[in-house]
Amino acid sequence: MRLPRPTLPDMKRRAPVAALLMLYLYLGFHAFSGSQGIVRWAENSAKAEQLEARLAALQAKRDALQADVDLLASTSLDLDTLDIEARRTLFVAKPGEITIWLDP
Asked: CA 50 to CA 45: how far, in whole Å?
């Protein structure tokens, strides 16, 4: 059995529906995988979590370095810390001390 061929008035009646269907498909595709779609949003969320973890680690490292700087500041000079840093930097030992070198 052969289907009847659509006539021009039938095609004019179906054209807006077909155009809306294509528009909805286009918008749906880009809402899912476009540059600001759901997939990109999930990727950006994962990247943001990684960057926040890295930021926290760098802030902790900065705080540790700032604590070392504060100990060597001229306003609150800790002589023990100064002695340790000078001996470590200059590779000097006190008389009678035994120095053991460890590979880092």
From this structure: 9
The amino acid at residue 88 is R
Residue with tokens 């809306």: 20
The mean pLDDT values, 10 residues at a time, for the chain of 104 residues are 76 86 90 82 92 97 91 77 83 83 76
CA–CA dist 44, 34 (Å, integer): 13
**pTM higher than the cut 0.85:** no
